Amino acid sequence: xxxxxxxKPDLAKAIVEGLGGGSRKDGYYECGNNxxxxxxxxxxxxxxxxxxxxxxxxxxxxxxxxxxxPWRKKPSGDASSQKQLKVIxxxxxxxxxxxxxxxxxxxxQLLVDEILxxxxxxxxxxxxxxxxxxxxxxxxxxxxxxxxKEFAGLSAAAEARSVGDQLYGYxxxxxxxxxxxxxxxxxxxxxGRVQTPIVGxxxxxxxxxxxxxxxxxxxxxxKFAVEGVxxxxxxQVVDGDPVDxxxxxxxxxxxxxxxxxxxxxxxxxxxxxxxxxxxxxxLPYNLLxxxxxxxRKYGYKPDETKDITQSLRERHKLITYxxxxxxxxxxxxxxxxxxxxxxxxxxxxxxxxxxxxGDPSIKSRAFNSAKVSAHHGIxxxxxxADMANLSEGEQKIYLLIARAYIAQFWPKxxxxxxxxxxxxxxxxxxxxxxxxxxxxWAALYxxxxxxxxxxxxxxxxxxxxxxxxxxxxxxxxxxxxxxxxTKPQPLYTMATxxxxxxxxxxxxxxxxxxxxxxxxxxxKGKEGEHGGIGTPATRDSIIKTLFDRAYLVEQGKNIVPTxxxxxxxxxxxDQAKFPDMTALWHEQQKAIKAGERDTVSxxxxxxxxxxxxxxxxxEHGLDIKVDIHPCPTCAKPLARIKKKDKLxxxxxxxxxxxxxxxxxxxKAGKPVPKEVAKVSELHKCMSCGKGLSRRxxxxxxxxxWWSCSNYPTCKQSYNDVKGKPDYSKPRSxxxx
Length: 736
What we know:
The strands form six sheets. Strands 2-3-4-1-7-8-9 form a seven-stranded mixed β-sheet. A six-stranded antiparallel beta barrel has the order 10-11-14-13-12-16. Strands 24-25-26-27-28 form a five-stranded antiparallel β-sheet, with no helix packed on it. The protein is 33% helix and 22% strand. The model has no long low-confidence stretch (mean pLDDT 89). The radius of gyration is 33 Å and the shape is globular. The protein has six domains: 159 residues, Rossmann fold (3-Layer(aba) Sandwich), CATH 3.40.50.140; 180 residues, Orthogonal Bundle (Topoisomerase I, domain 2), CATH 1.10.460.10; 138 residues, Topoisomerase I, domain 3; 121 residues, Orthogonal Bundle (Topoisomerase I, domain 4), CATH 1.10.290.10; 35 residues; 54 residues, no CATH class. The N and C termini lie far apart (70 Å). By secondary structure, the protein is of the alpha+beta class. It contains 20 helices and 28 strands.
């Protein structure tokens, strides 16, 4: 019996169809002498420190650094995931050979290999590489399977990254947290190979924005009339002009002198050229681009968008795999266009007309098997649903995905681009104008704003200057020098932060490390990725963690660091707060993939670095200032606590276990003190003689009760009668 182990249920189903069909069993399919089981992504996870030794449950600097070589794994996920793992392990006992059908990338290779290692499987193993679930593509892949040993390097590289991330994060998070708590900090100082550089990006951008000093430059614009055509043109600087680093005029007198020199003077066209241009539709979405658009258009956070796509895929079956990092589709998928367009038309009445006008014979640049990575772009399926049964978020995201797909079957946008250079009084001015000749797919997006993929040349004007020719004469009818203020890079929004995570290499100062992160092999098959960190499947959860732990906050649409994040940033070494670690790991993992080194040597070397960092924290502590908010009841520090199942916080006394139950609301990361009850000088406690305080009842609106100000030493309390304590019926504080 040959056992196929697929990464996901839908891939298992596609393999069954490629094998000629089969019958569904409990957790697998049976196809003659073949059985096809599936995973739910990674079915195993690394043991946590406390799994190795219970003493690690309590964080202690004396136990750092923690290292476990060899490392071990345990079943992960919920009960259904663990049940499916047992199905696979039971089938392995019956099998005579195995086929690794994980996705054709490092993680896909590892998640099947680690199961085989976990059960100590010694059967012959083949590898099938499937990145397109169409039956034709699956059959082709099944006919060209290879020995799984050829891909051992991929698995080892993924394993090294996983173990490295765990050891790096656990050790440095505990070390910095313990050092911060020694200064009175109440939370967790979370450190990670990806999350900490993200904090660094936001800190540096915010500081640069605040530190920006105003400066000014000048644009000289002339207005020209040439043989019946009126158009504006911008002055072109020459050597000798006073300019800044961006070649912008910096002298007002010089700029005004140019404007005065050309105003009213004869002008002559030096060059004029018109070219006929075409513009392709935007590619189908990958998860990152979808999260970016959803943030810009609807204000959705990345994890919200991912959750919505998960529901659209798993619950409604309306879209394909939702965590893809690819924007392309395989050539074979082009044949599915009529069915998908018809399904969109029935599901989304808003897009019915657009889908019906789509031409399935058009094959856009999106259909390119050579550019499909482990997954293809996110597109609609042939499933039909009632939009009324979808939530508002599901409707919005489905419409975005569907429109991008429909656009692939509309004609290209066409326009004429004209570039003109005009000379007047020895000075040259230039203008570019774009005139649309066929709207094509852009008609689907004409009401959109802020779409980076759809914006044209920012210097182009909407004036028809196609009739202008070389040598034509005219006049500069007017000219002006306009003062402009330099602007800092804007603060991050969720959309711009997500976009920057795909190209963080530009922020690395070390040339060698920058080149490592820009290695074309690192982002091979990932359109739009150019020296990025993290993956589409993990970035949203990492950003959510940074918000949950109060490192980042939103100010309107902008994302800025908290004071704690800035102080923590200042205390970290550059290698932690820049993407340097990812660049270094990429170099070493390339060697692992090539079989030039192994995971143990990588982890051992990493632990030497971690030990050095931990040693530094032990010796020098953490240079961080902590705002300690004392409890108004007992003076112990207040702790900021996340509300259960909500993205909200409140503050509670750190002495809760000792009996102090004080709590208050949170506002912008700071406690909002409750109004302190006044101690009455008139009404005294009958038990101890101290003053009483009148308090509102937590159970009944408008009701009150009286407590002793000597609490918790004296726990006497009294009912309230017309604003006075009822001494005739004393009660305990617990009853209150």
